[in-house]
Specification:
Blueprint (H helix, E strand, L loop, with lengths): L1 E7 L3 H17 L5 E5 L9 H5 L1 H9 L2 H5 L1 H5 L9 H4 L1 H9 L3 E6 L2 H7 L5 H19 L5 E2 L8 H7 L6 E2 L8 E5 L2 E2 L12 H4 L10 H7 L8 E5 L2 H5 L1 H13 L3 E3 L12 E3 L1 E4 L8 E4 L1
Parallel strand pairs: 1-2, 1-8, 1-9, 2-3, 3-4, 4-5, 6-10
Antiparallel strand pairs: 6-7, 11-12
Helix pairs in contact: 9-10
Bound molecules: zinc ion.
The site of zinc ion has 6 residues, from loops.
């Protein structure tokens, strides 16, 4: 069984510390993965508590702190513009590419996209895609072959704008199988490889899932006959949960599971159908995400 391994890099710290850690772990296991980078200002840095301390985050959720204070206040707190990740950490990003991993665009400004995508018009969307695409091309010396929107917040405008770029595929939603997106009755040219498995912060602290049984829980969700795509975060599995992730790879390996960059699936015999995407809710995640329907 093959798992598509997708690594999302949202922040300056994730890029600086999490990415080299993950590269080291992957090299020890002789694996390649798909890395999706954020290139522009890191306005997420001050919200790291959300990523690094999901148990705390879930407690906040359960205690209705969000309802009490409003998400804006909990998620804000940027007192000065964040550092430009691609500018400051170009060497880290280039080395990931040099090590043979698949390089994809995640965001120019992750935080901005997450918060404002509903109000962004096509020109706006194009601006952000282009900024990230151009910088990633400059850094690695070649255009990124794939992309994945921040926080699975995609819509038809985004899908249409992505057609301007030469992505082999995009990974913009949660779903079950590889598909060509249909927008307004038309089938687009870039396939979607959806994420099929939950992220760490979505399940930890839920339904008896703890750090002790997390790896087994994820393995129990795998479907041998179907598409399996896992997202890990440089900020989480690359830093605070690095040991656990290392053990996960080991455990999976012993069970005969291998890990591949997502693009590998395009060369396999996986059937590709047509689907559309719609906003929906998934357990453990605040707000909407794009879901294959
Ligand atoms: Zn992200």
């Amino acid at each position: 069984m093959k798992i598509g391994l997708r690594i999302d890099v949202d922040t300056f710290r994730g890029t600086k510390t999490g990415v080299p850690n993950l590269c080291k772990i992957l090299a020890e296991h002789n694996l390649n993965a798909s890395f999706f980078f954020s290139l522009g200002p890191d306005n997420m840095g001050r919200h790291l508590w959300r990523l690094l301390r999901p148990a705390f985050f879930m407690k906040m959720l359960r205690s209705k702190a969000a309802n009490l204070y409003g998400w804006d206040i909990l998620l804000k707190g940027t007192f000065f513009p964040g550092p430009l990740i691609g500018e400051r950490l170009a060497d880290v990003i280039a080395s990931v590419s040099d090590n043979g991993h698949e390089i994809g665009l995640h965001a120019w400004d992750h935080y901005h996209w997450q918060v404002h995508i509903d109000r962004m018009d096509r020109q706006n969307i194009r601006y952000f895609l282009e900024k990230g695409y151009d910088q990633l091309t400059r850094i690695t010396g070649k255009p990124p072959v794939c992309s994945a929107v921040p926080a699975w917040k995609c819509n038809n405008k985004v899908l249409l704008e992505k057609e301007r770029f030469h992505f082999n595929y995009n990974s913009d939603c949660r779903g079950r199988s590889i598909f060509y997106p249909v927008v307004g009755g038309e089938t687009l040219s870039q396939p979607q490889i959806p994420v099929t498995l939950p992220t760490y912060d979505e399940v930890i602290g839920h339904k008896g899932v703890s750090a002790d049984n997390y790896n087994d829980y994820i393995i129990s969700l795998l479907k041998p006959e179907e598409l399996n795509v896992l997202t890990v975060h440089a900020e989480v599995e690359g830093i605070s949960c690095a040991r656990m992730f290392d053990q996960f790879l080991e455990k999976a390996h012993l069970k005969g599971i291998s890990f591949v960059p997502l693009g590998t699936f395009l060369h396999g015999n996986i059937p590709v159908g047509n689907s559309s995407i719609e906003p929906g809710k998934i357990s453990g995640r605040e707000g909407w995400v794009s879901i294959q329907v």
